[in-house]
Amino acid sequence: MQKESLLKIDKELIENLSELIEAKDTHSILTIFANLHPADISEIINHLDKDDAQYVFSILDKNLAVEVITELDEDLREEILAKIDADRITGIVDELETDDATDIIGDLPESLAEHVLENIDKEDSKDVKELLKYPEDSAGGLMSSDFVFVYNDATIQTAIEEVRKHSDEFEQIYQIYVLDKENKLLGFTSLKTLLTNSLETKIVDVMEEDLIFVTPETDQEEVAEIMEKYDLVSLPVVDNERRMLGRITIDDIVDVIQEEAEEDISKMAGLIDDEEYSHSTLKVSRIRLPWLLVSLAGELVSAVVLSSFQASIEKVIVASFFIPIIMAMGGSAGQQAAIVMVRNMSSNKLWLSDAAKKLFKEFRVAFVNGLASAIILLVMTYMFFSTQLNFSFLLSITLLIIMINATMIGATVPIVLNKIGVDPVVATGPFVSTMNDIVGLLIYFTILSLFYIR
Question: Which of the pair, 295 or 44, is modelled with greater confidence?
Answer without folding.
Answer: 44
